[in-house]
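Researcher: I'm preparing a figure for a lab meeting and need a structural model of a single chain. I don't have an experimental structure, so a prediction will have to do for now. The sequence is pasted below. Please return the structure as tokens so I can convert it later.
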Amino acid sequence: MGEGPENLGEIVVKDDRELTMAELKAAAERELDDGDETPPAHELVRTARPRERDDELLDDPPATKVHLGRFAGWHAVRKLRWIITASLGLALTIGIIVFVHNTRELRHQRLHPLPEVEATIAPGTPRDMTISEGNMRVGLSREAPAINLLHLPDRDITLARGAEKAQFKVEVRDGETVEIKVLTGEIVETLTKPDARPLLD
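Model: Understood. Here is the structure written out token by token.
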């Protein structure tokens, strides 16, 4: 058997220069790395062996959305989704406008049931009434031609704040109001005699 080095730190002589084992190992690793170098991509293409259906491959493949996966369908209907959303928004806007206009028309018709009669009433015509005796059903309204003030012997009746209409029954006996019964709406009484007693809660 040939004699080997006694330990890893033994000095080896090569090319008239002393190299340690670590230096020899590094040189060997560099040689292995140089031998494993991969040729450039164009060299691989040039030297690749042709196959049967290579002529079916496209030189310039079209752009696709395969990378989107399940989101590809969502992306494909984006324009249609915008059209549907815009249509629904437009329909909702038109519906709101029609509803508001119709509500205003109905309110105007409710407050002005007799427009022909209103046209014959001159501006500034008094809209109050006086009851001195008996039973009567009275209606008050903020809109002409209805009255908006009722005079009784001991009090005045007007609409409550925020009320548009009101109907009530009133009974006057011997110059004194004995009963006021509200049917619809809200009214307010203002006492005009010191001895009059309130009849509304």
